Amino acid sequence: MNTSSELLQQTSLSDNELVTYSLRESHYYSILIERYEERLTRYIHRLGLVTKEDIEDILQETFINAYKHLNSFNTSLSFSSWIYRIAHNQTISFFRKRNVRPEGHLYDGDDEKVLSIPDISDTLSEVTKKESVHIIHSALMRIESKYRNVIMLHDLEGMSYDEISDILQIPLGTVATHLSRGREALKKDLIQHGYVH
Amino acid sequence: MDTYTKNSHHSCSKKIIERINNENIIPRSKSYFLATEGLKWIIIGMLIVITSLAWAVVVFRLMNIGEYIKNDYSITLFFPLMWLGVLIVSSLCGMYVFRYTSKGYKPSLFTLFVLNGTSSLVIGTGLSIIGVGYIIDSQSERVIPLHRSFEHIYITTLNNPNKGNLIGHFNSDTIFIDHKGNHWIAPSKKQSVKPQEFIIIQGTLSTSSKKIHSIQKIKTFHIKGKGVWE
Known about the structure:
The complex is a heterodimer.
Chain A: H1 4-11, H2 15-24, H3 27-47, H4 52-68, H5 79-97, H6 111-115, H7 129-142, H8 145-156, H9 161-168, H10 172-192
Helix pairs in contact in A: 2-3, 3-4, 3-5, 4-5, 5-9, 8-10, 9-10
Chain B: H1 13-22, H2 30-64, H3 74-97, H4 109-129, H5 132-143, H6 150-158, E1 168-170, E2 175-178, E3 183-185, E4 198-202, H7 209-214, E5 220-225
Antiparallel strand pairs in B: 1-2, 2-3, 3-5, 4-5
């Protein structure tokens, strides 16, 4: 059994250090799981409509897959991007198996983030905050998934261009292009649906 | 709006660690990943070599195609198509191999196609110069159905004594052996010979690509038949 000081010491370890220790002892891997569990749950949920059980299944497969491939992880890179990439692929694969198109959904606490998507909420001055969130979210679900994924990772998950490039496996320039085009697509959609004049 | 409550999920780390322990899941060894990565590179390398070899044959044929056999399209069709086919396959394999890079950067199919194509052109031309093109071309007749080697086409097209053409090689200054093994006496140009007694051959063919290349430098010899026409 670990003492509280040992636990504190272990949780202060960096992701890459924990990966190295996890290869020796699986116990360290639980710290990594706990560190990313909530963030990945949110991300999987944002990617599409899934039940609590489905999320747990996807999460389990994500962490098990990552554990099996720990030796292929390049410690000079970010573990966060790596585990997000696995979760992303696992979720897409889940939807593919079910022959369902992933349509993103919001998580508790996303309202403020949705409203902070640059140049979007300002255009919806005549509606209430709650309505704005609903309108923007609906528009977000209608745009192409390649744009939606980048907007979600950048504006909702708070990822950097570098991290998004690693997760979605696209060049940095494409990340910037997709983000800009995605926001444009959002605006166009709002105009088309009569929310912006 | 569909939302997911923050508190509705609970830690699954315990379940995962239990599953890892119960199913005895262990991380795959580093050597496994090194081997799979190495294998991918070997496959890519092999595909580039095959592409280069196909191009070497194309170059060999283009360098040696003479005016007599220009109309035989099969002579240039197979290997260019093979070169293109292997180029496409190797570029697609390249996309698979390079799909995970340090920055998540995935090179485009076009980039891989150009890089692969260029390297096969350079390597293939080099291989053709050192005679590999000729070897591949002549050996491929045995393994590729309906494929005729350049040498085969050349011989069947040009070896026509009735038209005054023979294909073979000199084994001395005056003895010429055609591809069927018939011996012919080729007197020196200074010797006086009656035209109706002699057959004219044009050039020589031997087993190296250099010799085949020299066939384009048409030389006229007067040869006295010691074989079928004697």
